[in-house]
């Protein structure tokens, strides 16, 4: 079927994508920082789906770790068909005068620089084969800035701009670039944002039915399996009770 490389496969959208693509017979390169989760996922997917899974543990913020982990894989694994740049996070919700500098650094280093570091290694592999698909996880936060979301929203606006740039630059190589912009989805995202405060995280999803990780993975799979001449460039997906990053109808 092909090879899919997914960053941030230890939870949420990334894990759901791994399960979806493995169920359809794709071999996978799965990455994240939590090695035990990667190993458990590898064993489960290989046993359940009979596919090959290569787990790679690295922090996308660390350029040297990214390039050495990816460059050392066997050439047969470099025939990547789909790169899903999914690893990312929000940290905190603060007005611009009160935000934590360290949270800003982590969000920018992960969501923007990490995505660039991984792409910089993988794009030559796609170019060499004159085919491939890069799917970048943006957000409704890329399209509409919300109060106290300043820096997180900026990182996702950067993903939006980088996706547009990638698409133009990679046209000569028949490489598709899709930016997926989900609205609120119940994953570990809010637990991470609120630094382990499960009560605060649960409150985010009260009064409406948010997207699930599977809803987003199904959409990514759809985009990745269109005919070679068809590319969804930019896709916003929200639950039915959400209009954009600001307006959610809660009961
Ligand atoms: P989760 O917190 O459930 O999963 C995030 C994944 O990213 C984990 O696998 C985590 O792995 C990985 N990750 C985070 N930081 C790093 C790092 N420095 N290096 C390597 N991997 C990292 O969140 P979601 O699945 O919800 O989010 C996935 C993406 O979708 C993010 O980019 C997020 O911004 C975006 N998004 C999420 C929305 C939502 O409402 N949930 C809506 C719109 C966009 P590990 O901790 O093991 O390293
Ligand atoms: C994640 C969704 O609304 O918290 O990007 O920004 S939101």
Number of strands: 7
Shape annotation? globular
Q: Could you state the CATH homologous superfamily?
A: NAD(P)-binding Rossmann-like Domain
Order of helices and strands: EHEHEHEHEHEHHHE
Mean pLDDT: 98
N- to C-terminal separation? 44 Å
CATH secondary-structure class: Alpha Beta
Category by helix and strand content? alpha/beta
Tell me the domain tally.
1
User: What are the segments in which pLDDT stays under 50 over at least 5 consecutive residues?
Assistant: none
Question: How would you characterize the largest beta sheet?
Answer: 7 strands, parallel
Spatial order of strands in the largest sheet: 3-2-1-4-5-6-7
Report Rg. Answer: 17 Å
- Report helical residue fraction: 40-55%
Bound molecules: NADPH dihydro-nicotinamide-adenine-dinucleotide phosphate, 2-hydroxyethylsulfonic acid
Strand content: 5-15%
Protein name: NADP-dependent 3-hydroxy acid dehydrogenase YdfG
Keywords: Oxidoreductase
GO molecular function: oxidoreductase activity, acting on the CH-OH group of donors, NAD or NADP as acceptor
Organism: Chitinophaga sancti
Structure notes:
The protein is an alpha/beta fold. It has one domain (3-237): Rossmann fold, CATH 3.40.50. The protein is built from eight helices and seven strands; from the N terminus they run βαβαβαβαβαβαααβ. Helix 1 (12-23) links the parallel strand 1 and strand 2. The termini are far apart. The protein binds NADPH dihydro-nicotinamide-adenine-dinucleotide phosphate (NDP) and 2-hydroxyethylsulfonic acid (8X3). 2-hydroxyethylsulfonic acid binds at residues 139-141, 149, 184, 245.
């Amino acid at each position: 079927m092909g090879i899919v490389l997914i960053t941030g496969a230890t939870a949420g959208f990334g894990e759901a994508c791994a399960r979806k693509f493995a169920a359809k017979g794709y071999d996978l390169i799965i990455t994240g920082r939590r090695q035990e989760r990667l190993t458990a996922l590898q064993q489960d997917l290989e046993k359940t789906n009979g596919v090959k899974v290569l787990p790679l543990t690295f922090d996308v913020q660390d350029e040297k770790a990214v390039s050495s982990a990816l460059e050392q894989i066997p050439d047969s694994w470099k025939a990547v068909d789909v790169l899903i740049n999914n690893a990312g996070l929000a940290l905190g919700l603060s007005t611009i005068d009160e935000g934590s500098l360290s949270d800003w650094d982590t969000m920018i280093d992960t969501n923007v620089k990490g995505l660039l570091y991984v792409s910089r290694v993988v794009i030559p592999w796609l170019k060499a084969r004159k085919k491939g698909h890069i799917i970048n996880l943006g957000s409704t936060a890329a399209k509409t800035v919300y109060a106290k979301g300043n820096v997180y929203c900026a990182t996702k606006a950067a993903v939006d701009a980088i996706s547009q740039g990638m698409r133009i630059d990679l046209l000569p190589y028949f490489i598709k670039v899709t930016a997926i912009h989900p609205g609120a989805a119940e994953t570990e995202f809010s637990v991470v944002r609120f630094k382990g405060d499960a009560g605060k995280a649960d409150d985010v999803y009260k009064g409406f039915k948010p997207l699930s990780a599977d809803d987003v993975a199904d959409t990514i799979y759809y985009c990745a399996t269109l005919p070679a001449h068809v590319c969804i460039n930019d896709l916003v997906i929200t639950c039915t009770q959400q209009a954009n990053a600001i307006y959610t109808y809660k009961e």
